[in-house]
Specification:
Radius of gyration: 21 Å
Largest sheet: 8 strands, mixed
Number of helices: 14
Helix content: 40-55%
Order of helices and strands: HHHHEEEHHEHHEHEEHHHEHH
CATH topology of the largest domain: 2-enoyl-CoA Hydratase, Chain A, domain 1
Structural class: alpha/beta
Low-confidence stretches: none
Number of strands: 8
Strand content: 15-25%
CATH class of the largest domain: Alpha Beta
Amino acid sequence: MKAYLDFEKPVADLEGKIAELRSLGGESDAVRVSEEVARMEAKAEQALKDIYSKLTPWQKTQVARHPHRPHLRDYIEKMVTEFTPLSGDRKFAEDKAIVGGVARFRGRPVVLMGHEKGHDTASRLKHNFGMARPEGYRKAVRLMELANRFALPVIALVDTAGAYPGIGAEERGQAEAIARSTQMCLELGQPNIAVIVGEGGSGGAVALATANRVLMLEHSIYTVASPEASASILWRDSARAADAATAMKVTAQDLKAFGVIDGIIPEPLGGAHRDAAATIRSTGDAIAEALAAFNGKSASDVRRARAEKFLAIGKSL
């Protein structure tokens, strides 16, 4: 069952009528119904094009959070093979908000890790809505150390509103864990590619996305804090989240212009949730292209290129 966002109401109405026509049409008027369905499908597609050609930053935020958008588990299932999950930080516990392990990406052994939000109530609670505790970031460090040891590229898929801000997480060193993970990203002697596939929120995203290449899906967002949190801080009013989203320049298009990210991966018409398989294929193609640029590079070359990339941000503004 499709889930429509508020601004997709015109499309929802048209697709609802199409479904009604299909269910009511009998053999006697099958041709007439088929013609009417085709006409309305064309109208619905045009409406979708019109809407998605001029999405506001807040509307893109809603698309990035769509419940049917492909999650990490979908990428693991369809983008890699022989995925072997590795659990625990070897210090305190296993954090299920960050899932990672070794896999084969188009025949090449890699370390794959990322945030998993969950797809229903039970899995969202299990994965803490993709908000990792310190153990998750320490697990990420352990996986990157493994990648260094065995000369494996690292692929990170980012989709989180931010790191978990609970008291227990803070007591166990949340900020330090995020900083160590970010540091490890910078010190990797192997190429690392990060893709913002949904939300890229705050340090919780940066801890995995400090990479040689940072890519974003067309309708994903990447921001220092969620629009709601920023509105609460700036105006003491979370209802002004739309204003905050616009002011913070959270979209892939804005961030590409600023040099914060390296590339934008197109999404199917209507967003990634309308064709998950096509989105995952496009993401895999973009990752493969990004990794190919580092073939034959030494560890020092990889580190130098990554450092230069981040030091250059903002210089042309």
